[in-house]
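Why does this matter for the project? Reviewers at the last site visit asked to see concrete outputs rather than summary tables. In response, this paragraph embeds two records directly. Each consists of the residue sequence and, immediately after it, the corresponding structure tokens. Nothing has been edited or filtered.
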Amino acid sequence: MQYIILDMEWNQAWPGSSAARQGIAPHGEIIQIGAVRLLADRTVADEFQILVRPKFIRKLNKRVSKLTGIQEAQLKAEGVSFPEAVGRFRSWCGEDCTFLTWGFDDVTVLRENLALHDLPADWVLPWYNAQMIFNAQTDGATNQRALKTALELLRIVPTRPAHDALGDAYHTALICARLDLERGVAEYRRAMEAHENGFHGAELPGCIARRVYRGYADKRAAMGAMAGAENLCPHCEKPMKAGEWISQPGRRYMNLSTCDDHGNFLVRIRLQQDGDGIRVSKLLYEGTSEAAKAYEKAAASARPRRRHRRRKKSEAPVKPEP
């Protein structure tokens, strides 16, 4: 048995762009694949990394470039097509391997990209979220820890860059080497049941409440409830006034809601298909938290700037009467 620790970086379409309007790669288009092979005796073996030249979202998002350090010119010069990258990766993986990622998103994005290129996805099995095994074998927490937090808890000093596919895969492999993966895989179903439904992504500091809602007919009904009947102050349970929803990747949304007696609270939600309806995973943050400050900054940048009407050359300025 061998474990393939997988991590990826992906580009995201700018809101309003052609790719965004068409719903191409809704979570993102992969631009980098990194992986580390971990043997059954928990020995870190060889590594794999490759850059992928995007086909559908060719303009590299500036935020992605800043976060990962990857440049658009670098992708054009060094990147290969996605089918070629996947072919090389599968050859490197070999047979009889179990995939592990830090979080739920990587495999979701991988499967979306495989579908975009009409490539099979059944080979990405079996697959497990290492966060769930980590929680089950440490303090039993249900929230997902950031990779940095898990390294700190295990007193592992990072030696590779963060937000680099191979760097993150390598650090995840170091964490997995401290875990009983065989037992973790066997008990994975129980770990998933302990994980509160739908809270995909590490909580930010200042989170004061979590809750899951089910049974909404569609997105409109779900978001209407989150801004209306279910938008209650955590202290007095009175209805709060919801601010503007700000959209985030992965069907996530946030708004700043106000209680007349207790001030502001940040509401973060994630929508997911749940049978025939919509499930909402809701996080509530203090208004003074860093998450709330990030919302205020995002809301300010999203507000349209006023455009001054240009006077035609033929128009003469109107002079005030004396």
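We now turn to the second protein, recorded in exactly the same manner.
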Amino acid sequence: MNRMTRGRMAYVPLSKAKPLKRGAQNRTGLFLKAALICAIAVCLVLSVLFTMHTGETVQLVVSGSSGLPADDLRIDASGVESIFKESIIDPRLILGTEWPVIYGVDIDEIEIGETEHGEMLQQGTDFYFDVLPDDIKMEILGFADDAPKEFHVGTQGPQILIYHTHTQEAYRQIEGQEYVETGSWRTAEEDSSVVAVGDVLEAELASYGYKVLHDTTNHEPPELKTSYSRSLETMERYANDYPTLSVYIDVHRDAYSNIEAGSKDFVTVNGEECARMMFVVGTGEKYNDKPNYESNYKLALAVTNELEKIHDGFTRPIRVKTGRYNQQMSDMCLLIEVGHNANALAQAKNAAKYAALALSRVLDIN
């Protein structure tokens, strides 16, 4: 048999073994229980310390991140609900001055609410992915360190098409500038909707020497959720009529859950209040005809970087999503959210001027 000898187990022949007294047995049981409790306590302490250390490491990596992915149902730019799921591959430890920081930010940093895309409205210039398959995430990380891509447009005929999939998206009602609503923050009055923002973008791009078309077709009826099928028909019609088109810009406005707090979400550039902007890039996971999301992403990133040079915090994180958003039409497709429903239309118009300036620094005319 075995018995304890100075804390070690010793083998004792059965012929020489003596039964332990009841008091000794009790002391042995108490000792074993105490040892077990101490071991559990040590494990708990080590677990807490490890978690705190890991959290500090991630916080250092994502310092300045301006978004937090949603873990519940949200509505994306296509009007389709999606659910955030944790990825098996967690590339949060990828760090770059201009390249994406994958989702991860302290809950304590949350300030004033969420947009329809599920991110927090905070100042910052980092970028992060949305719900994506792991192979797509790794592919994007693979080309993230490439040299900046050059983007060129031709000199003959129209080069840029501006259009609106969600044509009736409107901004916060302002006293003296009210509009008739077709829904919450929606209107058929073009001078009060994102169409007016498209007008400014068109005029500003033209001033930089681009030949621009602006389509104002209302693609929302009969159902908002099928707007993309109708805006695709518009894009295809223009592509057929104007083969020189190479850049397609879908102008939207985002949605924000807290109007009062969101009304403070803008930047001031050269004395003008400007709505902050964000680009959405689709990978087209459910489609056979997928976008060239590498090119579209790099274009969105290049414009975002130029906007950040104009004013720190001018943009919100680029959203890479599994939708397609008609971005298969060209290697230079942009979906831009100019402000949100808590911004004033004037702030969105001011922002559009700087969006044109940023684009003029990225799109070279051959």
